[in-house]
Write a structure and sequence with these properties.
The structure is a homodimer. By secondary structure, chain A is of the alpha/beta class. The first copy, chain A, has 3 domains: about 5-135, NAD(P)-binding Rossmann-like Domain (Rossmann fold, 3-Layer(aba) Sandwich), CATH 3.40.50.720; about 145-295, Dihydrodipicolinate Reductase, domain 2; about 345-430, ACT domain (Alpha-Beta Plaits, 2-Layer Sandwich). Helices cover about 35% and strands about 25% of the residues of chain A. Chain A has 14 helices and 17 strands. In chain A, the strands form 2 sheets. In chain A, strands 6, 7, 8, 9, 10, 11, 12, 13, 14, 15, 16 and 17 form a 12-stranded mixed sheet that branches. In chain A, helix 1 packs across helix 12 (about 305-320). The longest helix of chain A is centred in the N-terminal third of the chain and has 17 residues, at about 110-125. The radius of gyration of chain A is 24 Å and the shape is elongated. In chain A, about 50% of the residues are buried. Chains A and B meet through helix 2, helix 6, strand 11 and helix 12 of A and helix 2, helix 6, strand 11 and helix 12 of B.
Chain lengths: ~425, ~425
C-alpha cells in the first residue's frame, strides 16, 4: 500500500508526554506496523537534559546532543516536537523540520495558534504533513474529525469545554461546596492543576485551542480577534446563585458565524442544568460542532495527561505512516480566507450581573435606573440580604442586550459609593 | 499530492439518501476538490426505476440501464452502493465492484455485517478501499475515529445507543407518558419510524452495527455470536418502575472483553438516570469507547436521515479522493483474529424482573423460593397492588447473577397458575 515500509521518527522532548510516547512506540511497534502497513521506528531522541533521572530507560545510542540535527539527518522522516512554548527551541525545531521536508507531529497549541498559518504554507510547499491532534483537547479526536470525519459539513458553530483544570475547579466548587482557593490547592495536589496554572485559569489555553478550531471549521486563517476571560473571578456565591436559577457555570470556548461575521470568545458561561454541556464534570473535555448537513456532533473525552495525549500523537503518526497527506488546515493556504472576525461588543447576550452593595435606601432605584438608561431590560431581579443585614447582593438577569451596554453598566455602577465589591458579569447560554 | 486529479463516481441507488448525496456532490464539487486536492465527478447513476418521480433532476445521460455496468467501466473509480439489503443486487454490485478494482463506499450495514470479512479480503488483494462509515450510526464519525483517531488504543468495551427509532420510542414513552403503540404510531407519522420498523424494534439493526464495531475494536473477524432482544416487550409500567428506582430504560448495544472472552449483546437496559447515556433522548445516537491509553471517548450525533448519512458518505469518498488507502477493518485480514466470542449465559448481571400475579396467599413465598433455589439473591423487592386489588405486580432487583439463572427463574415462574402476564427480565447497567 505504501512505498516506504519503515519510517524513522525523532522524538524531541522527553517529559511526561514524550516519555510515555517513547515507551508506547517501543511496545506497540508491531501492532502499529500491521495497522498502517509501515513500521514506526524511533531513530533519535533528544531533550534538554540527557542525564536527568527518568522513570524509563532511554537508548543512549539514539540520543542527539543537538536536537536540531534531527532536522538535517537524511534518515529522519517524522519529527515529534514535545518541547512546548510558542517561541525558542520548539519554534526553531518545527520551522527547520518542515523546511527540510520532514513530517511534523506536535502537541504544541501555543506554537500552532501563533505560527500555524506560516508553518502550514511551508508544509504544503514541501508536501509533508503538519499534524497537531494532540494540541487541542488531548484524547478527543476533534482535529481528525473536523478534517476527515466531518469534512462534508459547513460549520456554523464550534464550542465546548476545552480546559480540564478549570472545569475540574468549577465543578468541584459546585459539588463539594468549596471556594476557589481551596479547590485550586487540592487540584494541584491531585495533579489536575500545574504548579503554575495561569494559562489554564485565565482562559489563554482555551483561546489557543479555539483559534485553531475556528480556522479549521471556517476555512479561514487564524485570527487574533478573540474575547478572553478566565475563571479567576468566579466565587462560590456565583455558583450558588447559578444553581438557584437553574444553571451551572462552565468556562466555554465558543466560535460562531452570525450574519457572516465570526465571533470568537472564551468566558465563564451560565448553562442550563439540563443541557448536555452542563453535565461535563471534572477534567473531561467536550467539543460540540453544529454543521450542515450533519446537524450537531459531540465528541467527549480526556483532554490532557500523557495517556490521552499519546493517543492523539499516535493517530497523527499513523496518518503519516499511511501516507495520508493532507493540508494542515483542511484546505490549501491559497484557498483559506480572511474572514470578518468581529469583537463581541455588538453581539447580543442575556447576562447575569451581580452587585454587592451597602443596604441603604435608593440603591436599587439607582441601579435599575442605570440599566434603563443603557437600554438593558431586566428579566429577573433577586435581592439577597447578607447575614449581617448591612449589605446585600443584587442579582440581575437581563434580556438579550449588546455586550458593550452590559459592560457600560458594570463600569458605571462600579464607581458608586454603595458598591462594596467588584461587580460581576457572566453571560448566559450559547446562542442568543 | 495525489496523482489522479479527478475520480469518477457511480452512485447506484437513488432513494432519499442517494438523491441527497447526488445533489450534495453536484453543489459541493468545488469545495471538496479544494479540500482533497482531487475532484469528485459523478459519471454514472442508476436505480431500479429510471422514470420514478424524483424531487430533483437527474442527468439522464449519466443513467445506466444495467447498474452492473458501473463495475466494468474503465472510467469508474468509486462505486457508491445505496441499494440496501444483505443479498441480491447490493451484494452482487459490491462483490463485482471490488473484484474489478473499484473503490466501494456503502451505507449497507446488513451487507457489511454479513459479508464484510469476504469483501475486505477482496479489497485488500486489489488495493482498493471498502468504506462503510454510513453503515454505523449515520453522522457519528465512529468508524473513522476507531480506524484513525483512536488507532493507538487497545479497546476493551464499546457500547451505546445505535438506533434512533427505538430510542425515540423509549424516551417519548417516558417523557409523554404514553404507551408503546401510540408512540410508534406517532413516530411513523413524524418519519422517525419506517412503515415497517421491524429491524429497528427487534434489535437486528443494532446487532448488525455492533458486529461491525466489535470486529473493528477487537481486530477480530465478524462474529455471529450475539444476544439480541428488542424493545417490543417494554411497556409503560416498566418505564414507570424504572423511574421510581432511579433508572431510564435504553436499548443498548454492548460489546466487551471480560476475562479474554468477548460478549456481544443487544437488549433493553436499566441505566442510572445520572449517567451520560441516560441523557441521550430522541433520535440521537451515541457511541462510547473504553480503551487504553485514551480512557473513555464519547461520540454523539444524528444517527440517520439523508443529511447525516451524506456527511458520512462524503467522508468516505474524501478519504478515497485523498488516496488514504486503509484496511477496511483497520488491520489486514491475515492479521485479524478468531477470538472467543461467548454466549452471555454465564455472564453476571444485576437484573430487574417483573411478575404480574394474582393476589393470593403463597405467591410471594413461591416466587422468592424459586429465586433461592436458583441461587439468585434479591437486592430489592417491591409489590404494587393493582387498582382492582385482585392482581399485583412484583418487581425484584437482583444482585449480580448468571444470566442463565435469571432466565431459568423466568421460565419456571412463567408456568405458574398465579401468573397473569409474561414475566419480564431487563438487565441493569453496563458493567458488572
Amino acid at each position: 500500500m505504501i512505498n516506504k515500509k519503515i519510517m524513522n521518527i525523532a522524538i524531541i522532548g522527553l517529559g511526561n508526554i514524550g516519555g510515555y510516547l517513547y515507551k508506547y512506540l517501543l511496545s506497540n511497534k508491531k501492532i502499529l506496523s500491521k495497522k498502517n502497513n509501515c513500521t514506526p521506528n524511533i531513530i533519535f531522541i533528544s531533550a534538554k537534559n540527557k542525564n536527568r533521572k527518568r522513570k524509563f530507560k532511554i537508548d543512549k545510542k539514539k540520543w542527539l546532543n543537538n536536537y536540531l540535527e534531527a532536522t538535517q539527518s537524511k534518515n529522519v522522516d517524522i519529527i515529534v516536537e514535545l518541547i512546548g512554548g510558542a517561541e525558542g527551541p520548539a519554534k526553531k525545531l518545527v520551522f527547520n523540520a518542515l523546511k527540510n521536508k520532514k513530517h511534523v507531529v506536535t502537541a504544541n497549541k501555543a506554537l500552532i495558534a501563533k505560527y500555524g498559518d506560516q508553518l502550514s504554507k511551508i508544509a504544503e510547499t514541501n508536501n509533508v504533513n503538519l499534524e497537531f491532534e494532540a494540541a487541542v483537547c488531548g484524547g478527543v479526536p476533534i482535529i481528525r474529525s473536523l478534517k476527515e470525519g466531518l469534512i462534508a459539513n459547513k460549520i456554523n458553530r464550534v464550542y465546548g469545554i476545552f480546559n480540564g483544570t478549570s472545569n475540574y475547579i468549577l465543578s468541584t466548587m459546585d459539588k463539594k461546596n468549596e471556594d476557589f482557593k481551596n479547590v485550586l490547592l487540592n487540584a494541584k495536589k491531585l495533579g489536575y492543576a500545574e504548579s503554575n496554572p495561569k494559562s489554564d485559569l485565565n482562559g489563554d489555553d482555551v483561546a489557543a485551542k479555539l483559534k485553531i478550531l475556528s480556522s479549521l471549521c471556517f476555512n479561514s486563517f487564524i485570527d487574533k480577534n478573540i474575547h478572553v476571560e478566565g475563571i479567576n473571578f468566579i466565587d462560590k456565591a456565583d455558583i450558588d446563585n447559578a444553581n438557584k436559577l437553574g444553571y451551572k457555570i462552565k468556562l466555554l470556548g465558543v466560535s460562531e458565524i452570525l450574519n457572516k461575521r465570526i465571533y470568537q470568545r472564551v468566558h465563564p458561561t451560565l448553562i442550563k442544568k439540563s443541557s448536555y454541556i452542563a453535565s461535563i464534570d471534572g477534567v473531561l473535555n467536550a467539543v460540540i460542532v453544529d454543521g450542515q448537513p450533519v446537524g450537531q456532533n459531540v465528541i467527549q473525552g480526556e483532554g490532557a495527561g500523557p495517556e490521552a495525549t499519546t493517543s492523539a500523537l499516535i493517530s497523527d503518526i499513523s496518518s503519516i505512516l499511511r501516507g495520508n497527506i493532507k493540508f494542515p488546515f483542511s484546505i490549501s493556504s491559497n484557498e483559506r480566507k480572511k474572514l470578518k472576525y468581529k469583537v463581541i461588543s455588538d453581539r447580543l447576550f442575556s447576562a447575569y450581573l451581580r452587585f454587592d452593595v451597602l443596604d441603604k435606601p435608593g440603591v436599587l432605584s439607582n441601579i435599575t435606573n442605570i440599566f434603563s438608561k443603557n437600554k438593558v431590560s431586566i428579566k429577573r431581579l433577586i435581592q439577597n440580604p447578607s447575614k449581617t443585614k448591612k449589605n446585600s447582593s443584587i442579582i440581575i438577569i437581563t434580556h438579550d442586550s449588546k455586550d458593550k451596554s452590559l459592560n457600560k453598566i458594570i463600569k458605571q455602577i462600579k464607581k458608586k459609593s454603595y458598591i462594596i465589591k467588584n461587580p460581576k458579569l457572566i453571560r448566559i447560554g450559547i446562542s442568543n
